[in-house]
Each structure stands twice: as structure tokens, then as C-alpha cells.
Structure prediction request, 309 residues.
Amino acid sequence: MEKQTIGELLKWGKKELRETGLRSPDLDAEVLLMEVLGVERLVLHVYPERVVEPGQHEAYEEGIRRRKAQEPLHYITGKKEFMGLDFHVEKGVLIPRGDTEVVVEAAIDTLKEIGKKKGFRDEELNLVEKAERRGELRALDIGVGSGAIAVSLLYYVKNLYMIGTDISPIPLKVTGINAKNHGVAHRLGLLEGSLFEALDRALPPEERTFDLIISNPPYISFEVKEDLDREVKDYEPEEALFAEDHGLFYYREIARRAPSYLKTKGYLVFEIGYDQGNDVRRILQQAGFSGVQILKDLENRDRVVMGKR
Ligand code: GLN
Prediction:
């Protein structure tokens, strides 16, 4: 293989991806080269004459080839930024969405409120040792996926302990990696199983109650499957995306059973699809939750429904 420079490879990669009709071909070509070389973007622009090693050259060609087949950029690079943290991602877990940060922020605020009512002062919410002495906060994430939600909550609320469940083994492995990378693995228990089933199996009833239950369940209706981007439809895990009952199946199941796993005044927090606000609000109300509210994402679409037991 002939020697090539950063500038030449970048020019070639951008041309290849432009032909594919991707949304941001130039940016994708740059990100793939940054990843292969392990450098910041500025290096690409300041040192275009730098010669790239043959191994890296091949790895870049492979990345461009995968991206041309519309594989999501983040599966190729193996990472995605979420809540200011780098998450490892791979095929088999949903790639964290920016919209989900709104769900995490709502949960952080709620956990800090609950913590204050338990008598923690602001600064103490950041001290694990105090939490252990005075009764920590406990939360459950149903369908942990990449761990974006659970690991961010644990990272930003230091006296929180969590259990995460998932029906597939890959998400549990990936969440474990992310929990370790961000130093929160000792406060997270992971269980394989559907919805509450794994909890019932693994824990005695008195340890099955939480201050908060959070979930970003599959919520896309099977009817709209064909309208989705190829990147999503062909590469992301179906079992994390689609649900029966016009996408409402898991909201009904979780809301119905959640009260027996929540402490009095514990919260249930859901991510929802932009057009599911009223339906999911009604589901929570019918399951006996009070103060049910809908919160919006940064594009002003309904994104979170939460209520109190
Ligand atoms: N928000 C995701 C999407 O638009 C779907 C996530 C989910 O079903 N939980 O692809």
C-alpha cells in the first residue's frame, strides 16, 4: 500500500461518504480518522502532511467502508458522549440519544429532592460514606442498555445505589464496562431478566423497594418500523426499539407493577416518544400515581412522564 498523508486520506474519505448521501459526511470522515489515529480534530487540520502508518490506513479504510454501508458512526468508533461522559457502545445496545439527557436530569433533580427530605444536606449528597451511615438512595433502571442512564445517575448522585436489569446479556456487559470506566461499579448491581422478573428471583422482598424506578423502554410502534432511518432499523437492537400496543406495552406493564417495588412517595420516571405524553400520563394515573407530569426535551417535544407513588 502506498504511503498516504492525513490530508490525502481525509480527502478520499470525505468523497466516499459524500457519495453515500449521509447527513454529515465530512464530519464523519474526520471523526473516523481521529479515532484511528487517536488524535484531536485540530491535528487533522494543522498536520495534513503527516504520513499515516499502513495499519492505521487500513483501519481507516475499513471504517469508511462500514460507514458507507450506513452502520452508525458510534458503533464504528465504539463510543458516544452522554451527560458529559464517554460511553463505550457496541452493536447490541441502543446508542444513547441526546434527548435522554432530559430524562436523566429530571431523575437527578428528583433524587436530590428525595435525599433532602431524608435529611441529607446538599454537600452530603456527594458523600458516599455519609450515605452508607444514614440510609442511601436506591433506584432501579429497567432495560439498562448501554448504561447511559444508570451510570450517569450514579456518577452525578454519589449516595445512590442502583440495580439495572436487561433481557439480553450484551447490555449487561456493556453497562458493566461503562460503570467500571466511570468508577461507579461498586454501587451498581446488574441482573438479567425481563422487567421485574430478575429482581423477584435475586432479592428478598424487603430489598426490592426503591426510591425511584426509571426506564427508557422500547416504545416505537411496529407499524412505523419501515419509516425509520436505515441506521436505526438495520443496526440497532430491535428488542430495545419496538413494543406492541402502539408502543405502549411496556409502560402499561411497568406502571401496573411498579407500585409494589416503590417506597411510599417513590417516583416512576419514563422516557417516552414525542407523541405518547397523554397516553402515558393516563397510564400512570390509572395505576394510581399522583402528581403525574410531562416534561419536554430541548426541541420542546414531550419526552418524560413521571409520577409519585
Ligand atoms: N428514542 C429512540 C429512537 O428514536 C427510541 C428509544 C426507545 O424505543 N426506547 O430511535
